[in-house]
Specification:
By secondary structure, the chain is an alpha+beta fold. It folds into 3 domains: 171 residues, no CATH class; 69 residues, no CATH class; 91 residues, no CATH class. It is built from 14 helices and 7 strands. It has a 7-stranded antiparallel sheet with strand order 3-2-1-4-5-6-7. Helix 7 crosses helix 9.
């Protein structure tokens, strides 16, 4: 009787975990492949919803805000983009929401910067990708059921990556010093039979995609388990996705009325402090009297949108009262800001997105190639 070795144990763990989670991981990885270029797909396929033809000079921001707030709404923030013709994006709250003092996502609308008119988006691509995202996160099930299923399968995915790495290594310790023992794990024997090619695709491609797959898995757990979310914040020492938690600073001086913001002067002051141009900029407005106005500006050299420099001004005087530069933050704070970008591969722009896309394709293929390997082994056992 053959001895039951440690490698055999790892192989059995890898096999049965893969069988248990295969269908869910196939769906999650396939949808992840589609979502890798989510932003680009929306802008490309729904371009008419996001860009306006330049007809004249842009309207002043204050005129647009005044028009939007005339309908029992309050503007929470707005974003303007690098492209001169891209629509402005405003977040609207009802007056009840604005006065509640509680964090509220609000309603997002797109505004033609030249006419001030709201763009009624068709958003077919965005709607499709929203469905894909729900399939990715909780399999289109009730969230209380789907999220734990995806979360458990994500933990299994991480274990599969680690056990796969062990199985990828040479079988014996004495072989570790020989390059020949490692070489076969880096290449595919294209002249071999189809069974060996399938095995090499599973083994070799799995190794090349290993690190990005681990990053996807370790960050993906944030959307499944609150305990993991809280624990990672404790480890990093900062709030994850910090832009949602940014605090508007109360002013030292007490003013009797809400400010009338001079956006031209305010943005001119911003550009004098953060001199890089063609940047995505978000302006967060004070919802009450005696609060600061915040401006986040992302340089093209930064890693992701959340990795932005942040300035806070006194909206009554346009004087700077706080400056927070991304480059000055601790390593944990930077990771906390970039966590979503790390998960979707947006943290180094197009190159990292392309790498994640290819790795997601590989991850999608692993349940298939792995199942084929298992079936082939079952056939061999029956023949013997």
């Amino acid at each position: 009787m053959r001895k039951y070795t440690f490698r055999k144990l790892i192989n059995d763990i890898h096999l049965w975990l893969g069988i248990i989670s295969g269908i869910v991981l196939f769906v999650v990885c396939l949808t992840g492949t589609i979502l890798a270029f989510e932003t680009e797909l929306v802008l490309l396929l729904d371009k008419q919803d996001h860009f306006s033809k330049k007809t004249k000079e842009k309207l002043p921001y204050q005129d647009i805000i005044t028009s939007l707030e005339a309908d029992n709404h309050v503007v929470k923030d707005f974003i303007f983009f690098k492209e001169d013709t891209q629509n402005l994006q405003f977040t609207l709250l009802t007056k009840t929401e604005a006065n509640s003092g509680k964090p509220t996502r609000g309603k997002s609308v797109q505004i033609n910067p030249f006419t001030g008119q709201e763009i009624k988006t068709k958003g077919k691509t965005k709607a499709f990708l929203h469905t894909v995202e729900e399939l990715h996160r909780f399999l289109l099930l009730d969230r209380t059921i789907g999220r734990p299923i995806v979360g458990v399968c994500t933990i299994i995915f991480i274990l599969l990556c680690l056990s796969g790495l062990v199985l990828w290594m040479p079988r014996k310790i004495k072989q570790f010093k020989k390059w020949k023992s490692w070489k076969q794990g880096f290449s595919i024997k294209t002249k071999a039979n189809w069974k060996r090619i399938n095995y090499d695709i599973h083994n070799t491609f799995g190794f090349y995609a290993l690190f990005p797959m681990l990053l996807m898995g370790l960050t993906g757990l944030l959307w499944s388990f609150q305990w993991y979310y809280n624990g990672l914040e404790t480890v990093l020492g900062d709030k994850i996705g910090k832009s949602r938690y940014d605090t508007i600073i109360p002013l030292d001086t007490v003013y009797n009325d809400k400010p009338t913001v001079n956006y031209i002067a305010l943005l001119k002051n911003t550009d004098s402090i953060l001199s890089y141009q063609n940047a995505v900029t978000r302006v967060t407005l004070p919802l009450k009297k005696n609060q600061s106005i915040m401006i986040r500006k992302k340089s093209n050299s930064f890693l992701a949108y959340d990795a932005a420099d942040k300035l806070q001004f006194n909206p009554y005087t346009n004087l700077l009262i706080s400056k927070s530069l991304f480059q000055d933050e601790s390593f944990g704070s930077k990771v906390a800001s970039l966590i979503r970008g790390i998960h979707v591969g947006a943290f180094v722009g197009f190159i990292s997105k392309l790498i994640y896309f290819l790795c997601c394709l590989i991850a999608t293929s692993l349940p298939i190639t792995g199942t084929i390997i298992w079936i082939n082994k079952l056939k061999q056992v029956k023949l013997t």
